[in-house]
Design goal:
The protein is α/β, with parallel strands linked by helices. It has 13 helices and eleven strands.
Amino acid sequence: MATIDPVWATVSELSRAFEARTLSPVDAVGALLERIRRRDPALHAFIAVYDADARLAAEAADKAIRSGHRIGPLHGVPIALKDLVDLEGRVTTGGSKVWAERVSPTTATLAQRLMAAGMIVLGKTHTVEFAMGSWGTNTHMGTPRNPWDLAVHRTPGGSSSGSGVAVSAGLAPVAIGTDTGGSVRIPAAWCGIVGLKVTAGRISTYGVLPLSSTLDTPGPLARSVEDAALIYRALSGPDPRDPQTLAWTPVDPLPALRRGAAGLRLAVLPDAERTGVEKEVLAAYEAAVGALAGLGAQIVRVEFPRRLSDYAKATGTIIGAEGYRFVGHLVDDPALPTDPHVRPRIQLGKAISARDYLLALAQREEDRREFAAALGGVDAILTPTAQTAAIPIDRADQSGTAAHFTRPGNYLGLCGLAIPSGFSTDGLPLSLQILCHAGEEATALRIGWAYEQATSWKARRPPEP
């Protein structure tokens, strides 16, 4: 087997190298920690790095693999966790200065499953405060830097900003984020990587700091579709501590991953939904649609029952009400150092009455049924992931959102995949979103894998200083 660079290797490449013993987890973790030491002061992806413990875990993994006690394909593979994921005894801030010394009382189910699979936690990554924001900014804890522009500080995407930057910049092969309105897919889009938004209930949220109990979905940010599938397989499944997970039977996406896109019915954006999208984004989108058609997919035109902006607005009502339930007491206290951009977003929930909230949930169920009836005959809906490429931080409208194309997926209970689909003339990543019906993660990953194999976008890396 050819020698691989552990800094840029995918999860699957690391897995094969560890199994063949052409690379040691000790060397892989050491190389990543050294790169974090050199690059992260400028990139600001990590809020905490577990250097000593990661090295110790790598030594243990190396000994286990060499002695024939390999647990499985993820044994010894490093991963980063968004700073919403509890690890008992460690600080989890949720991106908030208010919680700068909050010690986790438990370990999240998803972290338990990753460690049970033999994965090594490198550290925690930055997030927008309380996960409430799509630009990726954080006034008090610092905003990670999008690695694709060394001259201008651009939006990394939020709220899983640090996770997106870490994977994109070669600081971790994979990271965990959470997606309530786009917070896995937008950082993946703007950082040029893959992001999987799962159906609510597919991955346990126990031990993950909540924003919206209805819409929160943890998921992987990775360098390849196969890597996202591997992590999803490890994380999905019932957890008695999260009742939503009991409704789903786990499905292994890997057997169907390489079946191609031929014969699948893929719906494209109606013309009315293309306004407000940058020309370069639309051009890359059309090229991606054409590539999938060339792979044998059937491209169909549909009309959505409602405008995407309507679904996005309704998502905000639910997030606002539920977010205010969890952290309203913090943002309402003027003496506490909450982010001035996040505070008004959370406080929107203060004005939502119990009646309006319950009506919003009932309307969501009606909209979900209507949408499923209208698009039940398609396997996926293709959209751009974001309307623009990453923009300069100082141009971000903090009263608005970048989640125009992503929020509807959460609201309608869909799953979705963000995957690189090209680059702007400024060298910034562009992204395709593949939305599938509830529980159809395997289909989204299958389509994404077919497109990824037909293009070369995932081979591109950000510039080095």
